[in-house]
Amino acid sequence: MSDASLKRPGPQQRAAGPGQAAHAPDRAQPARAGHGTGAQAVPVPAIDIEARQVAKRFGDTQIFSDVSFRLERGRATALVGANGAGKSTLLRCLMGLIPVSGGEVRLLQQTATQARPAALRALRARVGLVSQKHNIVPRMSVLSNVLHGLLGQQGGPRHWSHVLAPAQSRAQAMQALEKVGLAHLALRRADRLSGGQSQRVAIARAIVSRPEVLFADEPCASLDPQAGEDVMDLFFDLARRDGVTVVFTSHNIDHALRYGDRVLGLADGRMRLDATASSLHESDLRGLYD
Length: 290
Ligand SMILES: Nc1ncnc2c1ncn2[C@@H]1O[C@H](COP(=O)(O)OP(=O)(O)O)[C@@H](O)[C@H]1O
Ligand SMILES: [Mg+2]
Description:
The protein has helices at 87-94, 117-124, 142-147, 167-179, 195-207, 225-241, 253-259, 282-285; strands at residues 31-32, 43-44, 47-58, 61-72, 76-81, 102-107, 110-111, 127-130, 213-217, 245-250, 262-267, 270-276. The protein is an alpha/beta fold and 290 residues long. It has a domain at 75-96 and 117-136 and 193-285: 3-Layer(aba) Sandwich (Rossmann fold). The structure holds adenosine-5'-diphosphate (ADP) and magnesium ion.
């Protein structure tokens, strides 16, 4: 199946936040296809994430192998598969959180699989993650929890608590809370929030550093259906507004097709599906990945 019918034109230029300009000057330069043929040059979307024959084993257990794909900037890709298929493991490999057993991952034009620790930290600071379990620190304020999203870029204890945080960081965290509609709860203790509110705090924490790539691992799996829909709508609104590249896992076929531009399916240790969401129907996936 081809990618030619992807729904949206990819944003060639992303509105860079003040924190991005320094590390991403090249991101506004689309690559060009064709050399000196006289034909009009066609802009080729930049590739933010590339897996090249990636394999992962835990001990003697092969989780997947020969996984290859290229994900374009500004697109949302759904990664589907049955429970235990390896979706979370693949996400962690793409982020450089765990080593691959074979192959190579390129993230934001850098080889994540061979990066030195400092380079990997710098790379991860350009990436956000929303997990199924929001991992909010319960006894701290909502605002402090959002500030934790800046720790990757601006380490040090001052970003642990809103009391110590520099004014500019606090303002940035408040902006992120405004985006998820929770500015009025900034000083509330995080363990006083509902599940849906907690997940919105986790989204604010993931976007506060203005990441170029967002990973989401079953971002609404622990929520009731209505709160889950609200969280998905909010997450994808924010990601699309900023032209962020998104990879999310889901075992909800409807979500995969609705929020993804492209759907990748893991089964039997291989990537068995790679298709545009618009070319698929629920019935193509039902049973296989539910
Ligand atoms: N750290 C680990 N050590 C050993 N096995 C693991 C580890 N993490 C995951 N697995 C195994 O890898 C397989 C894939 O897990 P996972 O990526 O969580 O699947 P999914 O997210 O698709 O449900 C499962 O069989 C799981 O038990
Ligand atoms: Mg998982």
